[in-house]
Each structure stands twice: as C-alpha cells, then as structure tokens.
Specification:
Elements: E1 5-11, E2 14-21, E3 26-30, H1 41-49, E4 53-57, H2 76-89, E5 95-100, H3 102-113, E6 118-124, H4 137-145, H5 150-153, H6 159-165, H7 169-177, H8 192-196, H9 209-222, H10 225-232, H11 234-240, E7 253-258, H12 269-274, H13 277-281, E8 285-291, H14 298-301, H15 303-314
Parallel strand pairs: 3-4, 3-5, 5-6, 6-7, 7-8
Antiparallel strand pairs: 1-2, 2-4
Helix pairs in contact: 1-15, 2-3, 7-9
C-alpha cells in the first residue's frame, strides 16, 4: 500500500475513485466481483517499480466510486464509456489494459469498441465470449446450469441484497474470495448463499484478515447492489451488442487462467480456448497461460507470477 495515491476523477457523468502509483506508460487495471482496486495491490507496486504508471479504479458501483441507482446504468456500454473517459482524464491516447473477472469482460469490450485506446491487453480468468445471436445470455445460462446458477439468482432485485445482509460482510467476502472448486456456483433457494458457499477453516497464505477487512469495510458502506447490477444487465447487453455479432478483438492479447478456476470448467470453454475458437475471435492472441493449482482470484493468489507475466508481455510494445 506504500506510495499508492488516491484521487477522484469525473468521468462519463460519475465520480470515479482511482488508486495509482509510478511514472511511465499507463497500465490500467480493471477489477471484478466482488472486488475493488485493492485486488491489484501487488501488481500496482510491481509495475510501478518497473517503470510504469499503474492505475486501478473502483469501477462504477464499487468502493469509493459513484453508484448510479438504476440497474440499467451498468451496461457494457456504460462501463466501457467509463474507461474511455478515464483514459482521456489521465491525459492518454492509448494505455495497456489488464482485466480480471468482470473487469476482463469490460476489457474485452473496450478492445472491441475502442481498439484505438489499447496498446495491448492481458486478461485473466474470463476468455472472450462471442455473442450468440440465437439465445439471450440468461436463457443460455439457465439451459446449461439451471435456475439456481448464481448469475441467475443475482437477477432477483432486492432479494439477493437482503440475503447478503443476513451474512456478516467479512464472512461473505471470505467465502467468495476463497472459492476454488472447478465447478459452477449453484445456489438453491433453500440453502441460500450462506449455505452454498463454504467458509474456509483458515485463510490461504495469500489473503490476510487485513485484506478481508479492507474489502468488507468498503462493501459495508456501498452495499453489493452496484456489483450485482452488472449481472442484471446481461440480457440488456445481449440486446445492445447485436451490431458486433461475429466481430473480432483486434489488439495484441495474453490470456491467463488457473486450472482450478470455475470459468475454465464451464462446458465447452477448454475446447474453445485450446482448439482454435478463441484464436479465431481474438486473432492477435499471442499467449495462453494455464497456471496449475490456481483458482479464480489468480492476481491475488499468485501475485508475483501475474506481475511478471504482465511485464514480460507489455514490455514488447
């Protein structure tokens, strides 16, 4: 945390909190759910020490950034718009981008919509998923996983927030961040999230009580609605992105995933990543790294490895 500075920038109609450190070419770090800029704490320090200006925002709805009240204010177009405005606010024409989880989704779409803004992309955990013109996103999820898949359950406005409120925030953060089963999160209503997500007997070495408390302190203040609204826009995103059906991502990309990541074990994903489908949609894909024995929160679990992977890739450009 030492030497990391914080400020708020007015971007795309909201005030966005950013954490930053270092001087040099900008590397923009984009977090996922249920996370914050803080998920990149190790990479911020590492990349700043290697001559880069590391910038990690709290995305809209998270942490110390504004959270618009309407669920429809969290579409992929809003989120990409926020990053384009942030890039401009930083005085940049082009930046390096690193994304994870929902941040990876936003980063893919930043590259799709504004490739002119991205020098190169390192994305973690979530491979680019081409739009299926024949099936809405939630219909596809329900067909594969059923109504109890967590993304389907997240659609329940108010009910999920009420359920989360019954669970101590530190406990909820621990349950999410330590999830490492290579299988989908399924949450039957009778069990709920508290009963469906295991509490770790002890925190892993890469996660401290101090880390948990930082995340929890911010979510206790902001609530989870902002982050949940990303999921509530899945079908709206499907509608809005129709013009880009079949379009490719045309920036240089490195992709990294853990072999215990639940996303890596979604039906068809490994074949898509390794048998040509991914490369067809991302023609400038230069490297795919599968890290053994690593779960979903890869940038926190293997901080030095991820920092090295980022540096070794972006230093080429």
């Amino acid at each position: 945390m030492e030497g990391i500075s914080h400020r708020k920038l007015h971007v795309n109609g909201i005030n966005m909190h950013v954490a930053e450190k270092g001087d040099g070419p900008v590397v923009l770090f984009v977090h996922g759910f249920p996370e914050l800029w803080y998920s990149w704490r190790h990479q911020i320090a590492s990349l700043a020490a290697r001559g880069y200006h590391a910038v990690a925002p709290d995305l809209r709805g998270y942490g110390d950034s504004d959270a618009p009240p309407s669920a429809s204010a969290y579409t992929i177009l809003h989120l990409v718009g926020d990053l384009v405005a942030l890039i401009h606010a930083l005085g940049q024409d082009q930046v390096f981008v690193v994304g994870h989880d929902w941040g990876a989704v936003v980063a893919w779409w930043l590259c799709m919509l504004r490739p002119d803004k991205v020098k190169a992309l390192v994305n973690l955990s979530v491979a680019f998923s081409p739009r299926n013109p024949h099936s809405r996103t939630l219909d596809s999820l329900r067909a594969i996983f059923g109504d109890d898949h967590y993304m389907c359950r997240f659609q329940e406005h108010g009910a999920i927030e009420a359920e989360f409120a019954q669970i101590e925030t530190t406990s909820l953060i621990k349950k999410f961040l330590t999830y490492r089963k290579p299988e989908p999160i399924v949450v039957p209503k009778e069990k709920g999230f508290d009963g469906s997500l295991e509490m770790p007997k002890a925190l892993p070495t890469w996660l401290s009580e101090e880390d948990i408390n930082y995340f929890a302190s911010k979510f206790e203040k902001s609530g989870f609605t902002g982050g949940l609204n990303y999921y509530r826009c899945l079908d709206l995103n499907w509608e809005l992105t129709a013009p880009w059906t079949g379009a490719q991502i045309k920036v240089p990309v490195k992709f990294i995933v853990g072999d215990l990541d639940l996303t890596y074990h979604s039906p068809g994903v490994q074949d898509y990543i390794h048998k040509g489908g991914f490369e067809k949609m991302v023609p400038f894909l230069q490297d795919v790294v599968v890290m053994e024995g690593v779960g979903h929160f890869i940038n926190q679990e293997r901080p030095q490895d991820i920092s090295d992977h980022i540096y070794e890739f972006i230093k080429k450009f």
